[in-house]
Structures are given as structure tokens and as C-alpha cells.
Specification:
The protein is 0% helix and 26% strand. The chain is built from no helices and six strands. The strands form two sheets. The protein has a three-stranded antiparallel beta sheet, with no helix packed on it. A three-stranded antiparallel beta sheet has the order 4-5-6, with no helix packed on it. Strand 5 (69-72) and strand 6 (77-79) form a beta hairpin.
């Protein structure tokens, strides 16, 4: 079973193979026999967006992977990956006082 899943083997006999069941810890109704279950997942928990970006995963179902959006403070948005945000390199006065 995968991470965040519980494995249960109802028949531990050596003659009984491929009857184990994986159950999602965050939703016990999602199970799979003889393999890992497909669980609901909030993709934003892995922090896939860049610095100064917000992440939103609108559909946390087993059928909706890579549908999260990353949004920059200025509103630029990207789906399934980090957004390309504008950076004002002059905002922290790198030229020094009295210079432009």
C-alpha cells in the first residue's frame, strides 16, 4: 500500500495470495484489493508553488491530479505548476541612495 494507507490481509495462509486490501487513511470508503488505493489528495500540502504564491486545489478527488493552481500576488496564475511571477528588482533599492 502507499503512504497514508492501511494494509489488511484477511487470510494470512501461504496458499492465499493477492487478497490484501489497502484503505485510505483519510477516507476509509476508498479501498483497493491487491494494490494501493487511489486516495483523495490535497496537492497543495506538498507546497508545489513558488515563493510569494498561493496554492489552491479545487478538486481533491482521485481523478483530479495536477489541477491545482498557483497564483502570484499580482494575479498571474498557472495550473499544475509554479506560476511565473514578475519581480521588480528595483524595489529594494539595489543601486544605492540617490541613484535610479
Amino acid at each position: 500500500c502507499g503512504m497514508g494507507q492501511t494494509c489488511e490481509d484477511p487470510n494470512k495462509s501461504y496458499t492465499s495470495q493477492h487478497d490484501f486490501k489497502c484503505t485510505c487513511d483519510n477516507d476509509p470508503s476508498l479501498t483497493q484489493v491487491d494494490g494501493p488505493a487511489i486516495c483523495f489528495k490535497d496537492e497543495c500540502l506538498a507546497q508545489p508553488c513558488g515563493a510569494d504564491q498561493t496554492c489552491n486545489d479545487p478538486t481533491q478527488t482521485k481523478d483530479s491530479l495536477n489541477d491545482f493552481t498557483c497564483t502570484c500576488k499580482n494575479g498571474v496564475m498557472a495550473t499544475g505548476g509554479s506560476a511565473t511571477c514578475e519581480v521588480d528588482e528595483c524595489s529594494n533599492d539595489p543601486c544605492g541612495m540617490g541613484q535610479t
